């Protein structure tokens, strides 16, 4: 049912139409879709993706979004409610509940709902970006609001008790190898810095709130900086600011460390998607209709949004592993500064190298 609602968002938000009125209609004959035909997945399959009245074909996207959302929610239910995977894989004494106790556990359901909301926003944003090359601001900004409220109410290390971080609060240096993998992962996976500051101790609402704000700010800024430097070297536009909004939302939900790593994982997944598309999808023989007619030659350029959304999910769910490997980068100011400098120089150089290997691009511009 959530997938069905996401389909409404995906079909209407890019055209700035209302998402609550009118009810679902055929885009061709404008007849209302019957209630029984609107049942997720089954409705689509029973009518073989066609309108009951005029036989117009509905996009296969309707089916895939519903299936994908259902599977994503099922996976989250197993990870968050049944297994409590992220929390249990990072504490010394895992909290293994029987199935009947697990499905009545309030913290686990709160975690599931929070994560399911983020997952829904990512699916809708990725699907719209894949089709229209834009991310409607409503999705990341509603996501930001929910992310900040939820994160403030569930501050790190919740649902772990605040005592779970005792060994980390007596002023150890979190970047040292003996503390790798010792940070308990909560709903907010990590605090924004460690050891936490005295004015925002573990478990305080202020820590949760700051985690969200810093996550959103860094998520947005890292895309803007990478975009600015890369385009300075490359000489033309390569990313949209919708990607900055998407990572801002992810940062509010998951924290700044995850947002930064997501950008790099997302670049890799975008590349994998691009290569898969080059192999699997043939370019259209006739250019798709466009208002300017025939201006477009390649509409299948890399849409970065879906890759970035997938990168966020991979980084977030694999954080107990990725976090152990990257912990030394995030809790020392000298290390953070060095990483920023290396990253900036590397991206500028990558842009320059790509510009030199693509001389045709400048010809088109002129
Ligand atoms: Zn119809």
Write a structural description.
- Helices cover 60% and strands 0% of the residues.
- It has 15 helices and no strands.
- It has helices at residues 2-12, 42-46, 61-83, 85-88, 99-102, 106-132, 138-153, 166-169, 205-234, 241-254, 256-280, 304-317, 319-330, 333-356, 360-365.
- The radius of gyration is 23 Å and the shape is globular.
- The model is unreliable at 290-300 (pLDDT under 50).
- The protein binds zinc ion.
- The site of zinc ion (ZN) has 8 residues, from loops.
- Zinc ion binds next to loops.
List the helices and strands and how they pair.
Elements: H1 2-12, H2 42-46, H3 61-83, H4 85-88, H5 99-102, H6 106-132, H7 138-153, H8 166-169, H9 205-234, H10 241-254, H11 256-280, H12 304-317, H13 319-330, H14 333-356, H15 360-365
Helix pairs in contact: 1-3, 1-6, 3-6, 6-7, 6-10, 6-12, 7-9, 7-10, 9-10, 9-11, 9-14, 10-11, 10-12, 11-12
Short description:
The protein is mainly α and 366 residues long. It folds into 2 domains: 1-59, no CATH class; 70-283 and 300-358, no CATH class.
Question: How would you describe this structure in keywords?
Answer:
366 residues; mainly alpha; 2 domains; 60% helix; binds zinc ion
Structural class: mainly alpha
Order of helices and strands: HHHHHHHHHHHHHHH
Mean pLDDT rating? 87
Broad shape: globular
List how many beta strands DSSP finds: 0
Report the C-alpha radius of gyration, rounded. 23 Å
The percentage helix is 55-70%
Question: Span from first to last CA?
Answer: 50 Å
Largest beta-sheet characterization:
none
Q: Helix count, per DSSP?
A: 15
């Amino acid at each position: 049912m959530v997938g069905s609602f996401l389909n409404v968002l995906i079909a209407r938000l890019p055209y700035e139409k209302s998402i609550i009125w009118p009810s679902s209609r055929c885009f061709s004959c404008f007849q209302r879709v019957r209630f029984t035909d609107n049942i997720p997945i089954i409705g689509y399959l029973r009518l073989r993706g066609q309108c009951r009245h005029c036989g117009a074909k509905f996009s296969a996207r309707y089916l895939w979004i519903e299936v994908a959302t259902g599977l994503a929610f099922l996976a989250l239910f197993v990870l968050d409610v049944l297994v409590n995977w992220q929390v249990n894989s990072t504490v010394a004494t895992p909290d293994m509940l029987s199935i009947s106790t697990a499905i009545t556990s309030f913290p686990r359901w709160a975690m599931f709902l929070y994560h399911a909301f983020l997952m829904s926003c990512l699916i809708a944003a990725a699907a719209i970006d894949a089709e229209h090359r834009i991310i409607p601001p409503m999705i990341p900004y509603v996501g930001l609001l929910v992310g900040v409220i939820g994160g403030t109410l569930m501050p790190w290390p919740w649902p772990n008790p605040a005592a779970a971080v005792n060994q980390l609060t007596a002023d150890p240096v979190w970047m040292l190898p003996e503390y790798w993998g010792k940070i308990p992962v909560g709903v907010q996976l990590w605090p924004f810095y460690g050891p936490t500051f005295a004015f925002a101790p573990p478990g305080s609402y202020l820590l949760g709130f700051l985690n969200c704000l810093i996550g959103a700010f860094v998520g947005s800024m890292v895309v803007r900086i990478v975009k600015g430097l890369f385009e300075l070297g490359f000489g033309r536009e390569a990313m949209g600011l919708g990607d900055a909004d998407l990572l801002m939302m992810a940062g509010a939900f998951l924290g700044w460390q995850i947002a930064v790593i997501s950008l790099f994982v997302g670049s890799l997944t975008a590349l994998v998607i691009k290569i898969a598309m080059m192999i699997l999808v043939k370019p259209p023989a006739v250019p798709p209709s466009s208002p300017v007619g025939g201006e477009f030659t390649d509409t299948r350029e890399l849409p970065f949004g879906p890759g970035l959304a997938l990168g966020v999910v991979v980084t977030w769910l694999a954080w107990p592993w990725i976090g152990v490997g990257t912990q030394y980068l995030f809790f020392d100011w000298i290390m953070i500064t060095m990483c920023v400098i290396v990253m900036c120089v590397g991206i500028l150089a990558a842009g320059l190298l790509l510009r030199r290997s693509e001389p045709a691009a400048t010809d088109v511009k002129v």
